[in-house]
Amino acid sequence: MKILILPDREAAVAACVDLIAQTLTATPDAVLGLATGGTMEPVYAGLLARARAGEVTLNRMTSFNLDEYVGLPPGHPQSYHTYMRERLFGPLGLDPARTHLPRGDASDPIAEAVRYDTAIVAAGGIDLQLLGIGGNGHIGFNEPSSSLASPTRVKTLTRATRAANARFFGPDETVPQFAITMGIATILRSRHAVLLATGGPKAAAVAAMAEGPLSARCPASALQMHPKATIVLDAEAAADLELRQYYETVHPQGQEVSLD
Ligand SMILES: N[C@@H]1[C@@H](O)[C@H](O)[C@@H](COP(=O)(O)O)O[C@@H]1O
After folding, report:
1. Rounded CA separation 154/142 (Å)
2. CA 134 to ligand 1 centroid distance, Å
3. How far is the CA of 196 from the CAs of 21, 127, 260, in angstroms?
4. Which residues form ligand 1's pocket by a CB distance below 6 Å?
5. pTM, 2 dp
6. Where along the chain do its domains lie?
7. 40-72, pLDDT tens digit by residue?
8. Which of 36, 40, 168, 223 most suits a substitution to test ligand 1, by most atoms within 8 Å of the C-beta?
9. Could you report the per-residue pLDDT of 128-149, keeping only the tens digit for each?
């Protein structure tokens, strides 16, 4: 696990965008695993700006998103299909056949999860998997208690996660109870995992992930087993790391972050 601590959110987001852009420059037809959530909004804004400036091309990549709410059709305003379409896929006119998300409205969500896992393997696996982290240590929608060997499947969302995500829904809407999510094993098979966390509310989960025991209580701790995981943090998200003085990872602003 390589831990990069950047001075602030803006610098952490820029470092994360750099890592994605470097992957796409080296391998324009890379398979990207994409994430949603508030943390990722400035990442997609940054990627979009770079694509519009001609600095990176996204139209040859293939993508697989981590998760989708069960019951929400792709056109639902709070679906992750809509999130991705509005922030990245639509503005760049990306081919929908190359940008995949699980279908939340599938008549058989369990079969949809199996189909999705199979499609990732058929595409050659994920070159770079982008991840956020929930306040309870979840990655994707792998809530605490998720098996470290889990494939893509239907997961019940915890009350804490539904409460955290209620901010994206209207006052009269209920946050779905279930999601289809890539599993921990699916995520661990990616060739490079890049997790971005910003802000003080993520500090405890970040410390549990990086310095706590490898445990299903903190699903993100599975990344300790990943052969190539890069954790990109701002100072606030890094605040609870006990060993932070030992990480040779404080990059002065402006210095390019390397993939190795
Ligand atoms: N399923 C998503 C995760 O992929 C995301 O990483 C996490 C953090 O979200 P945020 O960035 O909004 O804090 O929660 C959501 O529930």
Report:
1. 10
2. 5
3. 15, 17, 17
4. 35-39, 66-67, 132-134, 140-141, 161, 165
5. 0.94
6. 2-246
7. 999 999 999 999 999 999 999 999 999 999 999
8. 36
9. 999 999 999 999 999 999 999 9
